[in-house]
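User: Predict structure, ligand adenosine-5'-diphosphate.
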Amino acid sequence: MKSGCFVMKCGGSTLAALPDTFFLDLKKLQDEGMIPVIVHGGGPAISDTLGKLGIETEFVNGLRKTNEAVLDVVEMVLSGQINKQIVRKVMQFGAKAIGLSGVDGHLIEAKPVANAAEVGLVGEVTNVNAAIIEAVVQMGYMPVIAPVGIGEGAQRYNINADTAAGAVASHLGVERMIVVTDVPGIMKNVDGEKKVLPVVTVAEIERMIESGDIYGGMIPKVRAAMECIQGKVSEVVIVSGTEPEVLSKVLRGDSIGTRIQR
Ligand SMILES: Nc1ncnc2c1ncn2[C@@H]1O[C@H](COP(=O)(O)OP(=O)(O)O)[C@@H](O)[C@H]1O
Ligand SMILES: CC(=O)N[C@@H](CCC(=O)OP(=O)(O)O)C(=O)O
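Assistant: Predicted complex:
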């Protein structure tokens, strides 16, 4: 992949709260020749629609228990509602974007996760067809990707968005993944005060999961980060979407959020 390309994962927790400056920043970066590849979540919107339809939903270690009925809603909300909302918003601020789901052109190939007996149709990424992303970028568009995967027998899978973003970053071989969420980074209680850790290593993350300092939705983020920094990706940065011009700040190396390094 060309230099200047980075993967940005945008969590469902923060999508509605993203300020206009976030989208203006994306447009500025695209104009400057930077290449954002967006992978998005949408967990809260999925839960909301499942609730309206009276379908029960449950999480096991941060993964949604998924059957075909749940998968219908996951695909509808992620590839339909949320993906198009993001594409429309990016275009409204003047940038060029094309929305895809992991199903399109076998973009994200998947197989059942190891604990499928417990969580059902949740996928683990087996391959990312980077050539599709590269072709979209070549045409001057920002790819916006929904984390639904496809596997053997054309089976769809629900993939955690952090996991999908990490796999996309690894397969594209980008230098950096930026995880945009609703907290300013990985936080820790220091002398009774919650502080953002500027840098954490893999060993520190393992200790923080063990001690319970990292829990819930932060776990798939740090697991995806630890997985992708084993390869070409040199760092994963976790930041808040409400911080003005957060992407430009990370890319120019400002001290912001939490950097996860090898
Ligand atoms: N150590 C930690 N520092 C910051 N947030 C944490 C930590 N451990 C767990 N969290 C939780 O992780 C959440 C972010 O994950 P999640 O809600 O899944 O967001 P997203 O939709 O962006 O993926 C935070 O709102 C916070 O409640
Ligand atoms: C398997 C699994 O749990 N999939 C997630 C996919 C969306 C997601 O990950 O969205 P966030 O980034 O907003 O959490 C789900 O069904 O909620």
